[in-house]
Design brief:
Length: 703
């Protein structure tokens, strides 16, 4: 929009640091000043010059607001350097070039590098190119979207069944009228056309209301997603576009025609003479009755599948929300910070800063204790395969995995973890002297049983057990109670076992790696005197400002807030699945009630005769309830079977989107069966009780 793009010179060694800023940053932080080009700013602790402003709405590739030349921030490093950066590569395919061709070229380049640099690239001999959209919509998400589409189709089918049964009822009540029209010369096609026109008119009204609700729902969805802690890329938008609208209209018309066609065809086949001779009592034919009851069974089947899926999603998100992390996630305050090379160029300078921060917080009367950790937002810690001293590992998969985290010695007092054996870390615990570790109770029990873990040694390893890339042998000096180090996600191969290393240690890899000190750090503080953790953001920022006025804090909040931010998308998905399930349940209930009510109404004379001949009202009630029970039992049997079958076919695909519950969870299926049974019983009982109140004389005089 203003200024210039980057040049090759901006990426050259020793070039002055430049930046292009986004429209929002320009307006918000610089007041939209016209002379922004050439102004100086500080980025990651280094001075830079603004050389351009991007147009409004540009935030590529995700939601960025500032762009800098890659090598001005991350200079290229030698191969095999542990501190080497791993940038993402993006590009535009040439016109006419397919992804397969691009993948073939990428593989050729990879093989060329593998041959030229066997020490570092020997194992990297293939290349993969994928669409940017696929990067941000991984397979589990796509599976969720397809499942959601399936739920939409299921709700549509239930709606069609309801309309079809309604049309059967209306056609039966209008049997005499249709017979008169037929006797006066109306053709069968004319009668079918009349009934379909009525179906389309009703469907048209429903479609208009539905589209209006869709636009309102899209506004809610878009606003909710954009307010997430981790929103999707800016170019992923939620709109009712022309294609969606066209599909909706076509689906509505098709549903109206299909749901109205069968009743119209069956009703138009009736013999006009027989109907008129019968006096129009409105008794349904056996075929219509069987079709109507079969449709109710179909409704129950589809509803059962939708409710199972909805309840599994609800239980999954509930499990994520109610994880016991082993400490009070709402009683602490945390924040993230990054020490850049501009102000903190060496590991030693960073350590001095961290030591100063810890001392500063220790003297603050508002905080009881404070600690540092490398865990990202108190959600993501590291993990690694490990080897226990004295044990043999023959195959790659033999090495167990464990969570790992770098922490200061005060970390355990902040989280409230009790020391079960040994000691915590001291200032003298350095890898250069003696590599040490503290393990949690789960680690000690899993690997040492009832024996003491103190003095035992282990080391981090690679999956293939390459000794050159293994970490140092660490001596266990303490055992603490177990807290959850995993986030609220499925991580195959990992359990609650974990170990901690001193903050200025290298958690994985050999000591011979580059001098190590954490550049990006989470600070975790416990308020004093029972103060609310949410209110401690200001004191936390104040103390950090004293330590370094130019150091920004981000992701400030309680661990609970941080964790909730990562499952917010799942909550939206669970909400939508719940809506599908509730709508399906409501439609199926209305459908069953309508069919049973119509059936009772059609059999009023029969019930009147039976009661006039001495039948007790309990017998009439049993007749109606038995009819509903047979339909319910058949529908539940087929529905549960179909749900289990779909879960088997989906396999790991559906399990990847669930947490803490399996796709065949017995409790879920039991609750669904109980819920459908209860609702169906109520929907059947009301018409059944009405049948018992039929006055025999009124019923016999009805015609």
């Amino acid at each position: 929009m203003m200024g210039r793009d980057f040049t090759a010179g901006d990426n050259a060694s020793g070039a002055g640091k430049v930046a292009i800023i986004g429209y929002g940053t320009w307006q918000r932080d610089f007041g939209g000043t016209a002379d922004i080009i050439g102004k100086g700013v500080r980025i990651n602790g280094k001075p830079a010059t603004v050389v351009g402003v991007m147009p409004k709405g540009f935030a590529f590739p995700t939601n960025e607001e500032i762009w800098i030349p890659l090598y001005s921030e991350f200079p290229p490093r030698p191969r095999n350097d542990p501190a080497a950066n791993n940038p993402a590569m993006l590009g535009l395919l040439k016109t006419g070039v397919s992804l397969d061709q691009a993948n073939a070229e990428a593989t050729t380049i990879a093989k060329r590098f593998a041959a030229a640099y066997p020490d570092s690239n020997k194992q990297f001999n293939t290349g993969q190119v994928q669409r940017l959209l696929d990067t941000y919509t991984p397979r589990p998400l796509r599976g969720t979207l397809w499942t959601m589409l399936g739920f939409c189709v299921g709700v549509l089918l239930i709606s069609c069944v309801n309309v079809m049964n309604m049309q059967f009822a209306r056609a039966t009540l209008r049997a005499k009228e249709l017979a008169v029209r037929s006797s006066l010369g109306a053709s069968r096609m004319r009668l079918v056309g009349q009934m379909l026109t009525e179906s389309l008119l009703i469907a048209g009204i429903g479609a208009v209301v539905g589209i209006a609700l869709a636009y309102a729902s899209i506004d809610w969805l878009s606003a909710t997603v954009r307010n997430l802690e981790n929103p999707p890329p800016s170019w992923i938008t939620f709109d009712v576009d022309a294609r969606v609208l066209l599909i909706t209209v076509v689906s509505t018309v098709a549903a109206a025609v299909l749901s109205g066609l069968l009743p119209a065809l069956m009703s138009s086949r009736a013999n006009a003479v027989e109907v008129l001779r019968d006096g129009g009592r409105g008794n349904t034919s056996r075929a219509v009755s069987l079709v109507s009851r079969g449709l109710v069974v179909f409704q129950i089947v589809v509803t059962c599948v939708l409710l199972v899926g909805s309840l599994l999603q609800l239980r999954s998100i509930t499990a994520q929300q109610t994880i016991d992390y082993g400490y009070d996630t709402s009683a602490l305050i945390s924040a993230r910070m990054g020490l850049m090379e501009g102000d903190y160029p060496t590991p030693a300078s960073r350590r001095v800063f961290y030591d100063r921060v810890l001392r500063q917080f220790e003297s603050d009367s508002e905080f009881e204790s404070v600690a540092l950790s490398n865990r990202f937002r108190m959600v993501f810690s590291g993990s690694s395969p490990i080897e226990l001293e004295g044990r043999q590992y023959r195959a790659k998969g033999d090495r167990p995995r464990a969570n790992c985290e770098q922490v200061t010695g005060s970390f355990f007092s902040v989280t409230g973890q009790k020391l079960l054996e040994g000691r915590t870390f001291s200032a003298d615990d350095l890898d250069a002297r003696q590599p040490v570790a503290i393990v949690n109770a789960a680690f000690a029990k899993k690997h040492f049983g009832t024996e003491s873990a103190l003095g035992r040694r282990f080391r981090t390893a690679t999956p293939d057990g390459n000794p050159q890339q293994a970490g140092p042998w660490r001596t266990i000096v303490g055992v603490v109670t177990t807290v959850r180090m995993l986030g609220p996600f499925n991580q195959p191969g990992l359990d609650e076992t974990g170990f901690y290393v001193p903050f200025f240690s290298n958690p994985v890899g050999p000591i011979q790696a580059a001098p190590f000190a954490t550049q990006f750090t989470t600070i975790l503080a416990k308020p004093r005197g029972g103060q609310r953790a949410e209110a401690m953001a200001v004191p936390l920022r104040r103390q950090m400002t004293k330590a370094d006025p130019n150091l920004p804090l981000y992701f400030v909040g309680t661990p609970k807030v941080q964790i909730d931010g990562f499952v917010a998308q799942n909550r939206i998905v669970a909400t939508m699945f719940s809506i599908f399930g509730l709508v399906a349940m409501a439609l199926a209930s209305v459908g069953m009630y309508g069919v049973m009510s119509f059936s009772v109404n059609q059999r009023r004379q029969e019930f009147g005769v039976r009661m006039a001949l001495g039948a007790h009202y309990g017998r009439i009630l049993k007749m109606v309830l038995t009819q509903g029970a047979i339909q319910l039992a058949l529908g539940l049997f087929l529905g549960v079977g179909l749900a289990l079958g779909l879960a088997t076919l989906a396999g790991s695909g559906i399990q990847n989107i669930l947490f803490g519950v399996t796709a065949r969870d017995p409790l879920t299926y039991t609750v669904v069966v109980a819920l459908i049974t209860t609702v169906s019983l109520v929907a059947t009982l009301v018409p059944a009780r009405r049948a018992t109140r039929v006055d025999p004389m009124v019923a016999l005089r009805a015609e």
